Amino acid sequence: MAYYRISEVLSQVKQNTEPFGNINVIFAGDFCQLPPVGDTILYSNLKKNWTATDKGQKTVLGKLLWLSVNIVVILTQPMRQSGPENDTFEDRAVRHVDIAQPDWNNPECTVPLIVPGNVAKNSLNAQFAVAFASTIGKPLHWYHAQDK
């Protein structure tokens, strides 16, 4: 249904009734992740009774929109994320990455932080976990898994 909603909004914005407002769209993501919450998996089989409801009709139309995509490029090797040596100062300057100083104790602070690698992500997650435990007055326990 997400593809239907994307197409519907683009069609309204572009004032064009063609799929996706008749503009080129690039879809990016990891199709091996968990299924979307409250939505249908893109590669699921369509059920006969789906057209009986508004949501079902939009799901079917969204699936048909997805199937109308006629150019697919599959990237199989991560480049920038393959290590710190692939995230240079010049890369960060091009992306205008700033050092964020979030207010860890403000529960209203819900801005997503985008960082260049796992080291920064892990550090920020640890800082947030400590601040959250302190805010709610609960002890923090760390459990580490090891990949085999």
Automatic annotation (TrEMBL):
<dbReference type="GO" id="GO:0006281">
    <property type="term" value="P:DNA repair"/>
</dbReference>
<comment type="similarity">
    <text>Belongs to the helicase family.</text>
</comment>
<keyword id="KW-0067">ATP-binding</keyword>
<protein>
    <recommendedName>
        <fullName>ATP-dependent DNA helicase</fullName>
        <ecNumber>5.6.2.3</ecNumber>
    </recommendedName>
</protein>
<feature type="domain" description="DNA helicase Pif1-like DEAD-box helicase">
    <location>
        <begin position="8"/>
        <end position="91"/>
    </location>
</feature>
<dbReference type="InterPro" id="IPR051055">
    <property type="entry name" value="PIF1_helicase"/>
</dbReference>
<dbReference type="GO" id="GO:0043139">
    <property type="term" value="F:5'-3' DNA helicase activity"/>
</dbReference>
<keyword id="KW-0347">Helicase</keyword>
<keyword id="KW-0233">DNA recombination</keyword>
<keyword id="KW-0227">DNA damage</keyword>
<dbReference type="Pfam" id="PF05970">
    <property type="entry name" value="PIF1"/>
</dbReference>
<keyword id="KW-0547">Nucleotide-binding</keyword>
<dbReference type="GO" id="GO:0016787">
    <property type="term" value="F:hydrolase activity"/>
</dbReference>
<keyword id="KW-0234">DNA repair</keyword>
<dbReference type="GO" id="GO:0006310">
    <property type="term" value="P:DNA recombination"/>
</dbReference>
<dbReference type="GO" id="GO:0005524">
    <property type="term" value="F:ATP binding"/>
</dbReference>
<dbReference type="GO" id="GO:0000723">
    <property type="term" value="P:telomere maintenance"/>
</dbReference>
<keyword id="KW-0378">Hydrolase</keyword>
<dbReference type="InterPro" id="IPR010285">
    <property type="entry name" value="DNA_helicase_pif1-like_DEAD"/>
</dbReference>
